[in-house]
Amino acid sequence: MRKINKIIIHCTDSDWGNIDEIRRWHIERGFSDVGYHYIIYNGYLTYKSWKERKRSEKADGLVVLGRDVERIGSHCVGHNKDSIGIALVGTREFTRKQFISLRNLIEELLEKYDLTRWDVYGHSYFNPNKTCPNFDVKLIWRLDDERDI
């Protein structure tokens, strides 16, 4: 089992996407597979659905497996060996369902890998030239049933 010391949160920097498209984008960039271990959909699975503003409510917040967690990811230079990469489909706007799914997934991973909330980072923490994931990941702990982050 690979030693995991941190979880790194990303955005896909696209307003739509699905695992097959994201995998294709990453392979075109020279990766061997999709770089993230998990991807959380926003409901716009295709460019057409995004352009026509036809969100799939069923897919909004859906967590899909990207690269197998036992394989080193390709999502954060210098930090792939001991991390899990999670990406939310989106650029600067994310859905409440995505944030709820993100928090739930992180809580599962923290328990599984004996980590704490302090072991969760946004991609920009490790690369100041990036704004990804374009939100403060620490805010997901404030998410409750009454308000959005």
Q: How would you explain this protein's 3D organization?
A:
This protein has 149 residues and is an alpha/beta fold. The protein has a single domain, classed as Peptidoglycan recognition protein-like (Lysozyme-like, 3-Layer(aba) Sandwich). 24% of the residues lie in helices and 14% in strands. The chain is built from 4 helices and 5 strands; from the N terminus they run E-H-E-H-E-E-H-E-H. The chain has helices at residues 19-28, 47-51, 96-112, 123-126; strands at 6-11, 38-40, 63-65, 83-88, 120-122. It has a 5-stranded mixed beta sheet. The longest helix has 17 residues, at 96-112. 32% of the residues are buried. Residues 145-149 have low confidence and may be disordered.
Mean pLDDT reading: 93
The share of residues in helices is: 10-25%
Order of strands, main sheet, comes to: 3-2-4-1-5
Based on CA atoms alone, the radius of gyration comes out at 14 Å
Count of DSSP-assigned helices: 4
Broad CATH class? Alpha Beta
Could you give a short description of this structure?
The chain has 149 residues and is α/β, with parallel strands linked by helices. It is 24% helix and 14% strand. It has helices at residues 19-28, 47-51, 96-112, 123-126, and strands at residues 6-11, 38-40, 63-65, 83-88, 120-122.
